[in-house]
Amino acid sequence: MSQKYAELLDSRLKAWNVLHEDTEIRFFRNRQNAFKEFFSQENDLVFCNDICCITEAVGHHHDPPEWRLFIGSSKVSLKVVIIIIIIIIIIIIIIIIIIIIIIIIIIMIIIIIIIIIIITFINCSWVVTRWQWSFYIV
User: Would you give per-residue pLDDT tens digits along the chain (138 residues)?
Assistant: First the structure.
């Protein structure tokens, strides 16, 4: 909940006498001021412009080889990435299914060709055998 809505909720709850008399609501409006100087904003991009000083401000020593790149993102961007990954996985599964179907069709065609060759061979053999019988009979 944003600070603005929290203040609005506080005033409404007090106006409706829903809160107990001892209830206190506090707003910490200045907690980010200590760290504002370490960040910059360009359009919609917010980034840390002084990593060494901010790590010292929070009580850590900054040793660049020990640190990794961190890119913070909003929930919307994370959801988009997850949806893209799911779509890619679905596309890969569909491609695999299509490849399996093509392989099955090729195998069926090969089996049909083999069956046709066998039937043709049997028919030819039968014709030759019949011809030989007819030759002996005549």
Answer: 666 777 788 778 877 777 776 777 666 667 677 778 888 888 877 777 777 787 777 777 777 777 666 666 555 567 777 888 999 999 999 999 999 999 999 999 999 999 888 877 776 555 555 555 554 444
**Rounded distance, CA 46 to CA 13, Å?**
35
- For the whole model, what pTM was predicted? 0.37
Segment holding 40, helix H or strand E:
strand 39-42
Count of C-beta atoms within a 10 Å radius of residue 130: 10
Residue 83 is part of which domain span?
A: 73-138
> In total, how many domains does the chain have?
1
**Domain-embedded: residue 89:** yes
Residue 132 lies in a domain: yes
Q: What is the C-alpha R_g of the chain?
A: 39
Tokens representing residue 115 in the block:
């069956």
What are 74's two structure tokens? 């909003």
133 belongs to a structural domain: yes
